[in-house]
Design a protein that fits this description.
By secondary structure, the protein is α+β, with helices and mostly antiparallel strands. The chain has three helices and four strands, in the order αβββαβα. The termini are far apart.
Length: about 100
């Protein structure tokens, strides 16, 4: 079965996080949790990461924006990643490691 464009982005993000040694997981999206939770949750050098994956010109929903803002307000890092900016994950890693 072929991956959707967004699933390809998620797969690549997970591969990059694995290369970085970042602890990460994808929360279950079965309706039992809170709506808008990012696609991938991670921790890098003690810093919380919330990563929302989009394909192409995909945009976040209001609920996703709410959750990303809540993560940032709590001191975590919230990112929206697509095919064009996926390499920013390496920049975020460098930023976090230089900050801590």
């Amino acid at each position: 079965m072929a991956l959707t464009p967004e699933a390809k982005v998620k797969k690549k993000v997970k591969e990059i996080l694995d290369q970085m040694g970042v602890y990460h997981f994808s929360p279950m999206q079965n309706g039992m949790g809170r709506a808008g939770i990012p696609d991938i949750i991670g921790c890098l050098d003690g810093q919380f990461l919330g990563i929302e994956c989009k394909a192409g010109r995909g945009t976040t929903t209001a609920l996703q924006e709410r959750e990303l803002t809540r993560i940032q307000n709590a001191g975590g890092y919230a990112l929206v990643v697509n095919e064009e900016n996926i390499n920013q994950l390496w920049e975020i890693k460098e930023w976090i490691q230089n900050k801590t």
